[in-house]
């Protein structure tokens, strides 16, 4: 049974350009990145954060099976583990930037990174549109980081991280995200992120909602109210969605049988797994696999 492949920075062909950053940071013009990494032709995941800023060109970017239009000013912010692929025009350009949590936390608190709204993968969109009047400002920060990366002046790592933090702050200011969730207090947002982290860590165990509430030191009623207010969903909905998301990833990114995928997600009844998948996606697992793979090929 194949595991879902997750790329590290060292998997990229042009890695020789970034040895001075170990395997923890990378930035490059998008057109050059694409030319040197032709293997990016199927959905793939990463163990690092990604910022993808488009300055010209067009196309489609699929992130965890949701499609986003690509145009000048599009900016994508991906968290570790998210699966994506794209279909981009020949004149596409911009910047692509990778960083690991270890690189960020050399100077900053990692928890601060996780509270940024665009890294709430189940709550907010990983895509934002930079207004035309703001494109130059955002582009200049990427250029500054790229300049430090290429020239390696004294303390360039420190300057890169400072500019990276400034870039993330500017993007947080410009980000609109989920309007419903944006009305929550910071404590509630932190609780939502805690729930998301717990679900990511334990979704295959099929824990009861009461167990999640207990770990979070809140009541089941409080947890239900929080999810309803922020997302108009129940905690059970979030658990099912996370399981089905992983099933989708395995269906598209591995050759495993339906029964093997169900077993890997701790579903002992294949029929129940197929019924649940169809209920949440309107397709059977096999139908979903065929449709997605045909889209990737085309």
Automatic annotation (TrEMBL):
<dbReference type="Pfam" id="PF12833">
    <property type="entry name" value="HTH_18"/>
</dbReference>
<dbReference type="GO" id="GO:0003700">
    <property type="term" value="F:DNA-binding transcription factor activity"/>
</dbReference>
<dbReference type="GO" id="GO:0043565">
    <property type="term" value="F:sequence-specific DNA binding"/>
</dbReference>
<dbReference type="InterPro" id="IPR018060">
    <property type="entry name" value="HTH_AraC"/>
</dbReference>
<feature type="domain" description="HTH araC/xylS-type">
    <location>
        <begin position="193"/>
        <end position="291"/>
    </location>
</feature>
<keyword id="KW-0805">Transcription regulation</keyword>
<keyword id="KW-0804">Transcription</keyword>
<dbReference type="InterPro" id="IPR009057">
    <property type="entry name" value="Homeodomain-like_sf"/>
</dbReference>
<dbReference type="InterPro" id="IPR037923">
    <property type="entry name" value="HTH-like"/>
</dbReference>
<protein>
    <submittedName>
        <fullName>AraC family transcriptional regulator</fullName>
    </submittedName>
</protein>
<keyword id="KW-0238">DNA-binding</keyword>
<dbReference type="Pfam" id="PF02311">
    <property type="entry name" value="AraC_binding"/>
</dbReference>
<dbReference type="InterPro" id="IPR003313">
    <property type="entry name" value="AraC-bd"/>
</dbReference>
